[in-house]
Amino acid sequence: MSLAKTLSKLSVCFLVFSTVSCATTQKATVSSNLDKQSVYQAMTKVTDWQMAKFNNKTYLFEGYDKGAHMAPTDESSHPQGWVYASYYVGMARMAELASSKGNDKYYEQLLDIAKHGKYLFAPRIYNADDYAIGQLYLDLYKKYPNEEMLTPLKVIFEIILQTPSTTTLTYEDVTQTSVHDGKLLQDEFGNRKFQLRPCKNRWCWADALFMGPPVWINLSKVTGDSRYLEFADKELWETVNLLWDDKDHLFFRDSRFFDKREANGEKVIWARGVGWVAAGLARILEHFPEEHPSRAKYEDIFRKMMTRLAQAQQPDGLWRPSVLDPKTQPFKETSGTGLMAFAFASGINQGILDKKTFMPVVTKAWSALVDAVQPSGKLGWVQQIGDSPDNVSAEDTQIYATGAFLLTGSELYKLSK
Description:
Blueprint: H1 3-16, H2 36-51, E1 54-55, E2 60-61, H3 82-100, H4 105-116, H5 128-131, H6 134-143, H7 151-162, E3 187-189, E4 192-194, H8 208-211, H9 213-223, H10 226-243, E5 244-245, E6 250-251, H11 271-287, H12 295-312, H13 334-349, H14 355-371, H15 399-415
Antiparallel strand pairs: 1-2, 3-4, 5-6
Helix pairs in contact: 2-15, 3-4, 3-6, 3-15, 4-6, 9-10, 9-11, 11-12, 11-13, 13-14, 13-15
């Protein structure tokens, strides 16, 4: 590049420095300061970038990143499936915060999405991934009380209550071919093929504790129907008894990982997997009755897990894809970090976690999360859809990580001055 061109480029950078980041310096346009204005601005920047990628005709996020793109035939691309649901959980918190400032734009966007989907779910009735979006309808019901929003959710849960699954919690894929044409048997709905995993009719994997129980417990609180609460409480402890590691105070992702070990000999504890559990428990505790006999057990296991996770936080504020062996995949990772940071902040706000002990953990995590936000508002360093530690790059993004970022911001806003 010639000297003249270089000087010209630098002059443009200086002229627009106060409002736009220069490509040469790559300075972020959001601040990690823990004041309400800075937190809200960071949340707004990330939300607006994400929603700009939403196609209002197809009601899908599409075409904004090759790595993050989900094919129309991919089971994870269902607009009412877990990927979208986990984003909407965070966006609903953003909508509530913006509404308190007189801005209902985000609520209106979410309401349009819910109306378009007729308050329905992805196709598998018993699978928590497919009814996780019920949280969106509960959040909208709080803003726009309309029984129509909750009717499909009640119908689905009534089916589960009347005919609960009794399948084993052992995680395995069923590979069976048709005796007629020799093709692999799969569930197929709307051109999307779903792998047959019988245990997913219950909460047999860590992610499910974010997707399922909070919806059941919140619905119980909204309706006053204790059956939802008691079902969730019973099923959740079946999962905890299976996946909780009482020695390390962490959760395995599912039963396939019990005997797996990392290169350093440690157990394979996936950051996003244990992050789903941490964030799920934080959400559960928001609505779980104080007087319920199980309440103390939830708080105890939550404190133990968060204490252990604080010890595994890396010096840069993030957690690596493998919590107990950060050198296996030595990459920054923001989806697991975002979920854990939310859990820490929520625990402090609920009075379950000691603020003096855990606030430094949240502060470091938030600073690292904001540092991963590009000048455009794109959140990077997101491990893609999977079920175990894997490689990550600065350009990798996904909407569930944006949801986690917004969850964390919503709780930090309460903690900020």
